[in-house]
Amino acid sequence: MSAKIVQNMLKCAPFNRLYMSQIRSKATLPCLKFEYKDLEPIISRDIMEIHHQKHHNTYVVNYNNTLDKLQTAVAKDDTATIISLSPALKFNGGGHINHSIFWDTLTPHSTKPSDDLNKALIQNFGSCDEFKKQLATASIAVQGSGWGWLGFNPQTKKLTVISCANQDPLFPTTGLIPLFGIDVWEHAYYLQYKNVRADYVNAIFEVVDWDAVSKRFSEASI
């Protein structure tokens, strides 16, 4: 089987189609729209700095290194290597995507959902408070490491609460468009909340940038 055939097969899968389309563009660590200290006391400065500069940056570096290897493998028609790189692309690419969304939807000055998003939350969950309860429950229940998500289903036009393991990115994994995610890897909270994940999850709603979440909802629901 040639590398060209393998590439065509990869393009058929939503996740791999996403990354094959970005093969010529390297990932970069996004700048935050607030200072590391600004989310205190909900998220400490130390956690924010380590989470952004160390953990997220590691995903960026490893993703870019994997892209370099993939480009070399494609050029050499090295089918085995192309296939073997898929897990690293998924893990590190997913880590970069997930964290980029995470930072974009946090703010020191939490706002309220737009009228359209609030209406959708009520239609799909009964109330905004019930939505928060369901997302918190799903996030706390993640076994090991992963994310809790509010996603938009482009087929049914409904909002859904769901969780993903590890760094699996929401859209390639489920077909849901990510609106807001809660990182429940221990590096996101352990220095401050220790082993009490529930306290961290329930507190994070105090720093949600609902303007950003509402914008994502508006763009997804077009």
TrEMBL record:
Belongs to the iron/manganese superoxide dismutase family. GO terms for molecular function: manganese ion binding; superoxide dismutase activity. Keywords: Manganese, Metal-binding, Oxidoreductase. Residues 28-106 form the Manganese/iron superoxide dismutase N-terminal domain. GO terms for cellular component: mitochondrion. It comes from the Eukaryota. Its EC number is 1.15.1.1. It catalyses: 2 superoxide + 2 H(+) = H2O2 + O2. PROSITE patterns: SOD_MN (PS00088). Destroys radicals which are normally produced within the cells and which are toxic to biological systems. Destroys superoxide anion radicals which are normally produced within the cells and which are toxic to biological systems. It is an enzyme of class 1 (oxidoreductase). This is Superoxide dismutase. InterPro entries: Fe/Mn_Superoxide_Dismutase, Mn/Fe_SOD, Mn/Fe_SOD_BS, Mn/Fe_SOD_C, Mn/Fe_SOD_N, Mn/Fe_SOD_N_sf, SOD_C_sf. Residues 113-216 form the Manganese/iron superoxide dismutase C-terminal domain. Mn(2+) binds at H51, H99, D183, H187.
